[in-house]
Amino acid sequence: MASKKGLLFKVAIGFILGIVFGVFLEQSGSQSEIFVQVMPILNVVGNIFLRLLQLLIIPLVLSSLLVGTASLGDIRTLGRIGFRTLFWFAATTAVSIVVGLFLANFISPGAGIAVEGVVGEGREPQPLLDVLLGMIPGQPVRPQSFITAVTLTDGVLSTSSATIPYNAMTAISEGVMLQIIFFAILLGIAAAMVGEKAKPMVDFFSGLAEGMYGVTNIVLNFAPYGVFALIATTAARFGIQILLPFAKVIACVYIGVMFQAFVTYSALIATVVRKSPMWFFKGIAETAMTAFVTRSSSGTLPITIENARTNLNVPSNIAAFVLPLGATVNMNGTALYLGVSALFVSQAYGLELSIADQASVILTGTLAAVGTAGVPGAGLIMLTMVLLALGLPVAGVGLVAGIDVILDMARTCINVVGDQAVACIVTRAEGGYDNDEES
């Protein structure tokens, strides 16, 4: 835990130093020797960090999502509880993203920054039905044209190409992540249904997932330097005024988290569980505070389970199933953060997101939350994926990476609160609380 806290502290320091150094470069002038000499180095360091993040996305999502789905075990035995649990996780996650999108549309944290066209460009918005249809892959291997020769004739440059197959998992550059998520869920469900015969496959992907967690830790050790370079480059190019909207981003996330806790979850506890929201929040107070301080759903899990059993009267078997699964797949707070950040980046670069694009954020964020939960830095990884899927500049990650330490506390806290709310809902659905006094 100490190493993670140290990393978050280093990222925050890198963000602050990047601001200071970037403003210094901006004040020195774009024609100054230090600006000319240093900016290419910052660009290289920042782009290395971005490419490392993109490198993680596909194997991490595919392996962890498949294993998480397959871990439900015998679908015939766990199907009822599993379906209820995943349904409420997905439903509350989708609500979180909608809340985030609404707040970002209303507050417009990225409006007026005007850095359009600097890195990348938007794409034409897809119709909503095309987004839904695009979730289902037509084939696991798709053809791709590659340049095989370059010739120069009479001053005219020409190329020749050949079409060779490539694995669909490399299609991240084409924005087909939803297809990979769909395929991973489907294969995970099939593995759970097949049982023992599919165990070698699940073990392989489990090992791959553990390996990717290790790679993620390695990459995140580079994060302070990448964040420093990205934010310094931004500040050097556009000055301190580009940093002011961060207050709005933080406000959007924290307002959204409070809405999710005191409106969404309070309503579910009162109407579905038929208990007092005060009873619920009193029972989870220790867990919520621990999650806020440690910023780790997994690290808080022992306290989460104990509070659910003793304070919320969740049966041990339901607590043992729902809460560890929630620590792995339920990321309400991160989902809300994705909605806010995607709108922030699009507004900062002057790229309008259509209703269909924002619906794609809801779909991508809801499903991706299952795929990368429990991984340190999952918010940045998922944000990278969402930006790629929308055709937004990936460098926009650098605009919010530095304040991730502030946002992560709220995200983790609401993630754990959501886990316990769903545990209470499943308990009520399974006949629990019937003999309790309504409170």
Task: Outline the structure in words.
It is built from 16 helices and 2 strands. The protein has a two-stranded antiparallel ribbon with strand order 1-2. About 11% of the residues have low confidence. The protein is globular, with a radius of gyration of 23 Å. It folds into 2 domains: 390 residues, Proton glutamate symport protein; 35 residues, no CATH class. A hairpin with a 2-residue loop joins β1 and β2. The chain is mainly alpha-helical.
Features:
single chain; 439 residues; mainly alpha; Proton glutamate symport protein; 2 domains; two-stranded antiparallel ribbon; 16 helices; 2 strands; 71% helix; globular
Furnish the topology, listing elements before pairings.
Blueprint: H1 2-28, H2 33-70, H3 75-107, H4 128-133, E1 141-153, E2 156-167, H5 177-194, H6 199-220, H7 223-238, H8 246-273, H9 277-294, H10 297-310, H11 316-329, H12 332-348, H13 355-372, H14 378-390, H15 397-401, H16 404-429
Antiparallel strand pairs: 1-2
Helix pairs in contact: 1-7, 2-5, 2-6, 2-7, 2-13, 2-14, 3-8, 3-11, 3-12, 3-13, 3-16, 5-13, 8-12, 8-16, 9-10, 9-16, 10-11, 10-16, 11-16, 12-13, 12-14, 12-16, 13-14
What would a concise description of this structure say?
Helix content is 71%, strand content 6%.
